[in-house]
Amino acid sequence: MKYVIGVDLGTSAVKLLLVNQNGDVVQEVSKDYPLIQKKTGYSEQNPIVWVDQTVAGLSDLLNNFDGSREDIEGISFSGQMHGLVLLDENNEVLRHAILWNDTRTTAQCQEIYDVIGEDRLLEITKNPALEGFTLPKLLWVKEHEPEIFAKAKKFVLPKDYLRYKLTGELHMEYSDAAGTLLLNVSEKAWSKEICELLDIDTGICPILVDSHEEVGKITSQVAGATGLSASTRVFAGAADNACGAIGSGILADGKTLCSIGTSGVVLSYESSNDKDFQGKVHYFNHGAPNAYYTMGVTLAAGYSLSWFKDVFAKDESFEELVGEVGSVPAGSNGLLFTPYVVGERTPHADAAIRGSFIGMDSSHQRKDFVRAVMEGITFSLNESIAIFRENGKNIDTIVSTGGGAKNENWLQMQADIFDAKIVKLSSEQGPGMGAAMLAAYGCGWFDTLADCADAFLEVTREFHPNRENVERYRKLFGVYQDVYGRTKELNEKLAEFRK
Ligand SMILES: Nc1ncnc2c1ncn2[C@@H]1O[C@H](COP(=O)(O)OP(=O)(O)O)[C@@H](O)[C@H]1O
Ligand SMILES: O=C(CO)[C@@H](O)[C@H](O)COP(=O)(O)O
C-alpha cells in the first residue's frame, strides 16, 4: 500500500494526516503552539516553532508507522493564510511572523488606498485592503522596523517557510499568493504596478508555482530527524481555505463550504476570474488548476468559543463545554452574542469593533452563554451566505468542516441558521485532507483532483433545516445584524481603555 502525508499548518496547531491510496486516514498527529499577543490587535508566532513541531509530529507519525517508509510517496501542505515571514539573504527568519488575525495595520490599509486607489486595487487583486492581508504587514515593518526591512530579501507565507525548511527550496504558490494583495489574481503574476507604487523591490516576491507542482525532495537532514525517506516527493500545497475546499470536494460551480476553525469561512467555487463581488467577499485563486473561489471570513469563529472556554471553563474539554447546548432552545432564551473579540472582516472590515452579549437576564445559565456564542458565530457566517445569495448564488447544500463540525448540535444550528442542508464528511479535517489530495494528485494516483475527491471523500451525515427554528433564527438574524451599527461608536470610545 502507498501513502501520502497532508500537513495542515493551522493557527492553533500543526495537524498531520497519513492517508492511504483508498483515502483512509490511517494516522493523525497534532502538535500545538501558542499565539504571541503582546498588545491588543497583535498576533504573532515563531516560524522556527512551526518547523520544530512539524518535525516532531512527523517523527511521531513515522514511529507508529509499520509499513516501509519508501511507501510514503509524497507530502504536501495546507497553511494558515496571509502571515508575513521575512527572510534575510541567507533565508534566515528576521522577526516573528505577523499573522492573519493581527489587526495593527489600519493605517497601512489606508496608505494602500491612497497610493493605489480603491478601484485599481480591486481590479488587480480582486480584493480590498484588509488588516489581515500580507501587504499591509510588509508596509508596517517598513515603517516601524526599518532596520529589519532593510535586511529583508524575500517574504513568504507560513507553509512556504515550513516547506523551505523541509526541502531547501523556496517558493510560493498561487492560492496563498492571492491573499498577499500583491498578486494580479486573474493574470497569476506579481503586480509590478503595486510594488513600484509602494516602493517595494519586486525581488522580495518569491517564485510562483502551482499547488500540485513537485518542488523538491525531503532533505537528508529532515529525513534523519523524522524517519521519512529522502526520496519523499514534496508538492507545493495551498492556502488552508483552498486546501479545505479541495478536501471537502468543492471542485465545481455550485459547491459551498463552511469551515469553523480558529477563523470561520464560507467559501464558494468559481470557475471564472471575472465576476464582480465589489470586494464584499474575498476572491482568490483555488488550489485546483485554473479555478477560483469567493469567501467571507469571520475573524474569531472557533476562537470566540475557545476564548470563552479559556476565560470561564479552562479545565473543561470542548465536548464538556458544549455538552448541554442541546437543552437550550434556539435563540438562547433571548441572549445574543456578536463574535467580534478580535475585530471583524466580513461584512464589516473593522479592526476596532469588539464583541457583545446583548439581553443578559438573571435567569441565564452558563449553557445559555455557550449556545449564544455558537449562534453568534453562525450568524456572522450567515452574513457571508446572505452576500453570496444577494449576488445570485444558489446555496442549498453546504459541506461543514473544521473543529466546529465535531459537534452535532452546531451542525443542526448551521442547517437552521443557513436554511440549507449541511453535509458532514467522515473527516472534519478538510485542509489536511486537501493537502494529502494534492500530494496524491501530484504523485499521479488520479487524473484530476475531482477523481481523487470521488475516491477519498465520504459523506457520513446530513442535517436538514427544522422549519420552526429557521423562522426563529430569521427574526433573530435581523436583530443580530442591528448590533454592529448600534455598538460601533461605543466600541470606538472604549478603544483607548484597551491593553
Ligand atoms: N468538540 C468540539 N465541539 C465544538 N467545537 C469544537 C470542538 N472541538 C474544537 N472545537 C472548535 O474548533 C476550533 C478549532 O478548530 P480547528 O479546525 O482545529 O482550528 P485551526 O485549524 O484554526 O487550528 C476550536 O477553537 C473550537 O472552537
Ligand atoms: O485569514 C484567513 C483567510 O483569509 C484565515 O482563514 C486563515 O487562513 C487562518 O485559518 P485557520 O487557522 O482558522 O484555519
UniProtKB/TrEMBL annotation:
UniProt-listed CDD domains? ASKHA_NBD_FGGY_EcXK-like
Q: Which GO terms describe its biological process?
A: D-xylose metabolic process; xylulose catabolic process
Which SUPFAM superfamilies does its entry note?
Answer: Actin-like ATPase domain (SSF53067)
UniProt keyword list: ATP-binding, Carbohydrate metabolism, Kinase, Nucleotide-binding, Transferase, Xylose metabolism
Active-site residues, Swiss-Prot/TrEMBL: 240
Q: Where does substrate bind?
A: 81-82
Q: Which reaction(s) does the protein catalyse, per the Swiss-Prot or TrEMBL entry?
A: D-xylulose + ATP = D-xylulose 5-phosphate + ADP + H(+)
- Supply the name of the protein: Xylulose kinase
Q: Which organism is it from?
A: Virgibacillus indicus
Q: Which gene encodes it?
A: xylB
